[in-house]
Amino acid sequence: MAHLLGGEALHIEFPTRTVFEGVTVGVSEGDRIGIVGRNGDGKSTLLSLLAQRIQPDSGRVTVRSGVRIGYLDQSDVLNDDHSVGYALVGDTPEYEWASNAKIRDIISGLVQDLDWDAPVNSLSGGQRRRVALAELLVGDWDVLMLDEPTNHLDVGAITWLAGHLKNRWPKSQGGLLTVTHDRWFLDEICTETWEVHDGVVEPFEGGYAAYILQRVERDRQAAAAEAKRQNLMRKELAWLRRGAPARTSKPKFRIEAANELINDVPPVRDTVKLSQMAVSRLGKDVVDIEDVSVSYPLPSGGEKPVLDHVTWLIAPGERTGILGVNGAGKSTLLGLVTGDVAPSSGRVKHGKTVRVATLTQQLDELKDIQNDRVSDVIGRKRTSYVADGKEMTPGQLLERLGFTNAQLSTPVRDLSGGQKRRLQLLLILLDEPNVLILDEPSNDLDTDMLAAMEDLLDTWPGTLLVVSHDRYLMERVTDQQFAVMDGSFRHMPGGIDQYLREQEQAESRDRGKPAPAPSSSSSSSSAPAPTRSGAEIRDAQKEMKAIDRKLTRLSESKKDLHEQMAAHDQSDYEGLADFGRRAQEIQDEIDELEMRWLELSDVVG
After folding, report:
1. Long-range CB pairs of 259-265, under 8 A, 24+ apart, other chains included
2. Which residues belong to any copy of the ABC transporter domain (predicted)?
3. d(CA 545, CA 53)
4. Diameter of the chain by CA atoms?
5. What pLDDT does 174 receive?
6. Which of 24, 47, 522, 524 is deepest in the core (most CB within 10 A)?
7. At 350, is the secondary structure helix, strand, or coil?
């Protein structure tokens, strides 16, 4: 694969710390790279260095002649005086851009709900983000660098973006680098993951699931100081293999190796035990919403209906994810649960022992304690907290959520966005509510901290209601999903995939077009399995064994190739590119065989 760009011996430091010291990385045709790491470790800095937006203190960045790089900042650089249409296509005549299938698809996927003539300065933050992303994607680029591209996007837009990026270039062309905490997105589009930590960039093959597998193996062999993180990653891997059927249908790692690692790991949550604890804390009655409608008065007169005859009987220990486009009525529904919204008709009944708490997006709980030290804030709360049947001090909980001893004496105002988010969650849990509402809880958190938060929530025995555009988190911490659609509240037994299909069908009806039939990969899991004959099963078992042998040989060949690559002259880009091409050919063959293995496993049952 041809070399596109690279950084050699990159060193950069800021007044308070060294970010990178001697980092060498490269991007070749066909690379789809996800960049992960703790907040503040240098993910965005690495992207800026490779885009030549900032210069290293030493080392160099080389870009192949003629390579065009498109870059998406975390904050948009749109001109406030332009209209939405001008921001996207400039003064290009309509007949030209409208005849371009790629541009039509981008407009449909990201901004079709926006007024084409609306000035940019009239848009909300989320709308501006979508326009900025669409403006970038309309261009022709050899390399795309995206810094948190899923921010402010809903589940449907994120799914569309993943599909667009997978199909934007042929498999062996173009280069993509993305910094994101959206783990579903990473798994969907990336063939390689770079972990930025401690001044280095460590590469891993595959997307997020494959990265977790390799990182577990690395941590398993590390010193005792890494034991806590290892156990967390093993639990995360157990979730990936057991809890997400859609994800395991397209593995980027050896299934046998994953099973070997997790065969002694218990399920993510003991749902029976948690339900029993929830009943003892809550009683049988939580919140009953029965035949409720909600309407809001309009300034011009009349009323706007938001919810129409909704019924939702919330059970003790229930873990529910709530889906819906912006403005569908999710916040109104949660307002009924908290008691902040009164129904226009119908009945809402709250159990006598219910204590509801909401993790808001605005960090409201921290406004009055900005000048207090973290240790003082925690000291005014409970002296102990029970998690997973074990009594823990607030300090131990802080450590579990990634705080160091030094940070305990830090004023709340000086904490990073992610640290404030974790402190906010801890303060809410120490108040011991029995109904917890999470409103976009993944904001400002990196992938490690999201895993730590999810691990803590696994042991929480109350009722959990989650609103989030983070598909991975939604599937990870909830047991069922409902959607607010056209004023109704509907159960989605097929999960987020079912919601996306129904949303697409609704949009197609609105456009007067027939909706596309769902693909086999997203069909309902309730479809009956075909009956297989004994001969078919025996043939499948035989082929699976042959695939196992071939996968072992290919894995050994790939390992040998990587060792040769590591020993090769790193300044010989042409030679390295040849190694990369051969490695990719082997990986492609492994991917095909693993997919065939999965198809055969369905036959064997």
Report:
1. 261/213, 261/216, 261/217, 261/220, 261/234, 261/237, 262/234, 262/237, 262/238, 265/234, 265/235, 265/237, 265/238
2. 5-223, 287-511
3. 51
4. 75
5. 95
6. 47
7. strand
Contact, 333 vs 309, CB < 8 A?
Answer: no
Cα 78 to chain centroid distance, Å, stands at 26
Alpha-carbon gap, residue 229 to 218, rounded angstroms: 11
Distance (Å, rounded) from C-alpha 193 to C-alpha 212? 10
Round the CA-based radius of gyration of the chain to a whole number and report it: 25
CA distance 314 to 463: 8
pLDDT digits (tens, 9 = 90+) for 319-376: 999 999 888 889 899 999 999 999 999 999 998 888 899 888 777 778 888 888 888 8
The reply to whether domains 3-223 and 272-513 share a CATH topology is yes
Q: How many whole angstroms separate alpha carbon 11 and alpha carbon 370?
A: 35
- In angstroms, the CA 604 to CA 536 distance is 8
Q: Report residue 169 as tokens.
A: 């270039």
| DSSP result, 216-273 | HHHHHTS-GGGHHHHHHHHHHHHHHHHS-HHHHTS-SS-HHHHHHHHTTPPPS--HHH
Class for the domain spanning 272-513: alpha beta
**For 191, which DSSP code?**
S
CATH topology of domain 3-223: Rossmann fold (3.40.50)
In percent, the amount of the chain with pLDDT more than 70 equals 83
Closest by Cα among 149, 186, 139 to 166: 186
Tell me the one-letter amino acid at 33: I
For the chain, which residues make up each domain, given as ranges? 3-223, 224-267, 272-513, 534-604
Contact 162, 506 (CB under 8 A): no
Nearest to 161 by CA among 199, 123, 188: 188
Residue 588: burial class (beta carbons within 10 Å; 0-12, 13-18, 19+): middle
What secondary structure does DSSP assign to 484-513, as a single string?
EETTEEEE-TTHHHHHHHHHHHHHHHHHT-
Global pTM reads: 0.67
User: Using an 8 Å Cβ cutoff, are 278 and 461 in contact?
Assistant: yes
